[in-house]
Inverse folding.
């Protein structure tokens, strides 16, 4: 391929998909991550949260915790769809990230390894669009479910051929 034949628009990470291309049960495993002191420090800077339960080991131990407790919103960040292939698949069809919800089922501490995943739970067709509801989960290294939630995305349907 010559330089003049190269088309940046054709440089896709994955095949593009539209609402009707998705199926309930499709699963997107996101990269596993061990929660580090750097994660805690970055989240503290971004959030402005300065409660000692999130950054003071001795405070945590004095309150019966084995170490620093990850902030719930910090844990939610590990479910960001952008860490996986879904946003690449909908790069032409995605209209909006509508909402999310989360339930925190177990604490996450410094040094825990998290295994986030998204799974299509519901597809709601509309006239020219559809809503993709994804269950978001995070398990820890002990196979415990620490977060259960949902993301919803508004995605275009494929335009009919003219």
């Amino acid at each position: 391929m010559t330089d003049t034949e190269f088309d940046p628009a054709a440089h896709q990470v994955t095949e593009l998909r539209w609402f009707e291309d998705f199926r309930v049960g499709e699963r997107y495993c996101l990269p596993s991550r061990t929660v580090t002191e750097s994660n805690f420090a970055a989240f503290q800077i971004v959030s402005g949260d300065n409660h000692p339960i999130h950054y003071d080991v001795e405070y945590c131990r004095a309150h019966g915790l084995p170490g620093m407790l990850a902030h719930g919103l910090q844990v939610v960040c590990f479910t960001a769809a952008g860490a996986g292939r879904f946003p690449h698949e909908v790069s032409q069809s995605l209209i909006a990230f509508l909402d999310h919800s989360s339930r925190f089922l177990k604490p996450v501490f410094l040094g825990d390894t998290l295994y986030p995943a998204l799974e299509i739970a519901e597809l709601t067709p509309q006239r020219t669009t559809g809503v993709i509801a994804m269950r978001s989960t995070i398990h820890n290294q002990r196979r415990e479910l620490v977060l259960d939630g949902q993301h919803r995305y508004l995605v275009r349907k494929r335009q009919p051929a003219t």
In short: The chain has four helices and six strands.
